[in-house]
Amino acid sequence: MDSEEEMYDESEEEEVSDDDHNMVMEPEVSSTTATYDSQDETYPHEVLSPEMIVQHMIDCIKDVNTIVELPATITRILLNHFKWDKEKLIEKYYDGDQEKLFAEAHIISPSRRGQASGSSNQVSVSSTTRSTRSRAAATGRSADCEICFSTLPTTVMTGLECGHLFCEQCWSMYLTSKILHEGISETISCPAHVCGILVDDATVMRLVRDQRVRLKYQHLITNSFVECNRLLRWCPAADCGRAIRVNYVDSKPVTCTCGHRFCFSCAESWHDPVKCFWLKKWVKKCDDDSETSNWIAANTKECPKCQVTIEKDGGCNHMICRNQSCKADFCWVCLGPWEPHGSSWAALQRYLHYCNRYMNHMQSLKFEHKLYAKIKAKMEEMQKHNMSWIEVQFLKKAVDVLCQCRQTLMFTYVFAFYLKKNNQSIIFEDNQRDLEQATEQLSEYLERDITSDILIDIKQKVQDKFRYCDTRRSVLLAHVHEGYEKELWEYQGSL
Amino acid sequence: MKELMNLETNPPPGIRIRSEDCDAFNEWLVDLKGAENTLYEGEEFQLLFKFNGRYPFDSPEVTFTGSNIPCHPHIYTNGHICLSILTDDWSPALTVESVCLSIVSMLSSCKEKKSPPDNSLYVMKAGKNPKKTRWWYHDDNV
Ligand SMILES: [Zn+2]
Ligand SMILES: [Zn+2]
Ligand SMILES: [Zn+2]
Ligand SMILES: [Zn+2]
Question: Does the complex come out with an ipTM higher than 0.90?
Fold first, then answer.
């Protein structure tokens, strides 16, 4: 276990002072009462810093080791083999064929260790020797390294329990190449051809002296620990580096210390009211169709009949080629004849309708931080004009609500896209339209120049509007969730 | 390079390194003879090995070259070879010699001379470097 200590005590600096997010105007994490954001509290989760992740991994290993009593690095490989499911590992370890288990995990069973290292006939995985050359036979005090062909003293030859020996320098270059160039950590095997025995952490740390490579190795190991572990997920925010830990997997929102709020199940930003399944389908569709959308948004195309380049600046999609000898009558979107328009055109129009609205909210949310900065400046300005700090807080609250509404609206368009029309879907669309309108009005109020003269007037308006938005948002979400419970929603294209 | 000298001084039957055409650190040309009692008996082929700076930790780029490309279910007419040890199953303990022997044995076990089923499509689309192709290894027993 010493090796484990040694391995991790040199993990990099960190951590994260609170300065990371001391932005005064940070959007607060759900203080609105009785909205659906309170789901956060019903789903317990813990934020792990990079050190805590490593510690958690070591704890998992120790935990298992109190039972199975194997070297720590062996336990890590085994745990990784079982995707860090401790119970499953212990169950298989005691109920099954241990030899088979070790072979499947590509390690040499500890019971066979130590016997005649250097001999090859004990390898449990296939040990088919490769070419014609003989293996590094330790003839007396020197041996041939099969990688660099040097004849070297046996003291610098080393290998794993499989008995394949190579010189230390070749080992180091081999491991470096795997770690640095191929980005592999969990599945580095013995360099001998067709030998699948995995390299353990202790060996890597012993043979690689370059700090940069060691660090990269540790990163890779932690990364695979988090990615394999069902109960852990990296915070998807750029450069965050923290992970979220839960006790059970669910599609519920989790909030990282960096402020990012996302769905634990699918790692997309929290997407209430749409379900992970449909969102995933939607995101894929958008990716697949991005070429189509770009093409539609393009300003120049060729006339389908005479191939002359046509430029379009706004206006409707009914095009008539300007080329006097052509004058083709066609649709800009599909480049087909204007009459008649087929059903594929309708489907495309429908998709674009939802996609545009979805994109619109997504774009606006990207400028969220700019809006907060702008409002902050406004609030400071107002405080110079005889307004107290307390009196101007409504503006920040208004931006909070605006962002929440945009987030919700964005995903309602995904939900709506796959929804089949019925009585409930009509109510839903009314709710959606209402919220959309109110949200855009609120946004407009906040964009306006607020001078101290109109302040009293505008304050009332803004407050009324954001309260209205907040209520409408709760109503919409409550309705969708009720629909889920009572199975009122029908989907189209469930394919 | 020790490997080059080894292969020059005692080459296995049917394999001859063209040392005069070898740039010791980047490219090697190797002559292969089709083994006796196989479909390729009497034929001669040329293999081109290209090494990058990370050899032997990274695999060499190996293609058939010259006027005679063997007609074989795992060899494309542009000289690319579908053989797992050249990419996924590469090991630094493999050598030019062992690669040549693998290829000879692949040729020897061939029962019918024909090009890979997707040959024309592949050759049309493939780049120069076969290592950039995601290979789905054809059944090695063919
Ligand atoms: Zn060596
Ligand atoms: Zn081995
Ligand atoms: Zn985060
Ligand atoms: Zn989700």
Answer: no
